[in-house]
Structures are given as C-alpha cells and as structure tokens.
Amino acid sequence: MHVGGHLRDPFIEAIENNEFPSKEILGKLWNCTDIMPGHIRQEVGGMTHKAWTPPLPEPMTYAQGARRILEAMKRAERNL
Length: 80
Description:
By secondary structure, the chain is an all-alpha fold. It has helices at residues 5-16, 23-28, 38-48, 62-78.
C-alpha cells in the first residue's frame, strides 16, 4: 500500500537525526510497500543492529523498517 510523503518524510527526518520515529508514524507506515532509500535502509540497520539479528532485506519497504524499529524500541524499553 502506497503512503504519501507527508508520512514518509517524518520517518526519514527522524532516522537522519538518529532518532526513532514516533509510534504513530510507525503505525501509519505498518503496511507501506514503498521502498525506502538505500541510505535510510542503512541507518535503520545501524539503529537496530543490537535488537535484530536477521540481515537487512534489500530492498527494504517502509513497513519492514517500521516493524524493525518498533521491535528495537520494545527491546530497549524492556532493558531499562
């Protein structure tokens, strides 16, 4: 399912600032089949490498990235 730039852009901005996007944005991208840019894919991989062991899919959809990030967020919350 295609999702407009008004939802993808906040995701990209958060990743580029080395922050997790909001859970609201992640939820809205949950079924997005749009392919994320390669540099964002790499950033997502770097941000989630400790919480997620499977290799990064190539290419990666926004839905795959959102799910990976949410899992990393949940694991970080459990480890506090």
